[in-house]
Amino acid sequence: MNSNLYWALTLVVNLVLFLFLTGCISETMQEGKIIFQYQAWVKLVSLAGSTCICVVGFVGVLTTSLPKSLGCWLCLIIGPSMLFGLTLGLFKDQLVVSQDSFIIKHQQEISFEEMSKISIEKRGNNKKAGYNLHCVMKVGKQKVIQSTGLIIKALPVITKNAQKKGVEIQRLDN
């Protein structure tokens, strides 16, 4: 097969994955807690896309000679990386917000009672800017949480519940 076909297929799959993964978060209520997680179809599309990239790379490596198969070897590297890095993360990632706390990755619970201030601060330069959620604890420690789609979607609920517990909210520090 033609190496240009593999590159085109890989580009299309990556673009489709990017478009589907933006803003596809479900919000469910269970036992007084709001759970934010990626929707099931996003997880399945990511799994299918990663698997397709792996298969395209494998077939390409088997059917083309070495100079033409460099893109296929790249697919064999990118596909499993996406499968184990991105897709498994989508299946495991969730954020749980209750009246008293929120739980982020790796079951790290952050209690509103132990916080004195939450601030949202910009990180990086203008080309690769992002935001961090800084939680200043009453004991003086600071917990920095890098923004993800789940954090951005849950931020209004987190700040509302934190304000109810007397936590100062600082919106944005440029």
The percentage of residues in β strands lies in: 25-35%
Number of strands: 9
Order of helices and strands: HEEHHEEEEEEHE
The helix/strand class is alpha+beta
Helix content bin: 40-55%
Question: In terms of topology, how is this protein built?
Answer:
Elements: H1 3-21, E1 25-30, E2 33-38, H2 40-63, H3 70-92, E3 94-97, E4 101-104, E5 108-111, E6 115-123, E7 130-137, E8 142-146, H4 149-164, E9 168-173
Parallel strand pairs: 6-9
Antiparallel strand pairs: 1-2, 2-3, 3-4, 4-5, 6-7, 7-8
Helix pairs in contact: 1-2, 1-3, 2-3
Give the gist of this structure:
The chain is α+β, with helices and mostly antiparallel strands. The protein has helices at 3-21, 40-63, 70-92, 149-164; strands spanning 25-30, 33-38, 94-97, 101-104, 108-111, 115-123, 130-137, 142-146, 168-173.
Name the descriptors.
single chain; 174 residues; alpha+beta; 5-stranded antiparallel sheet; 4-stranded mixed sheet; 47% helix
Could you please describe the fold and organization of this structure?
By secondary structure, the protein is an alpha+beta fold. 47% of the residues lie in helices and 30% in strands. The chain has four helices and nine strands. It has helices spanning 3-21, 40-63, 70-92, 149-164, and strands at residues 25-30, 33-38, 94-97, 101-104, 108-111, 115-123, 130-137, 142-146, 168-173. Helix 1 (3-21) runs parallel beside helix 3 (70-92) and helix 2 runs antiparallel to helix 3 (70-92).
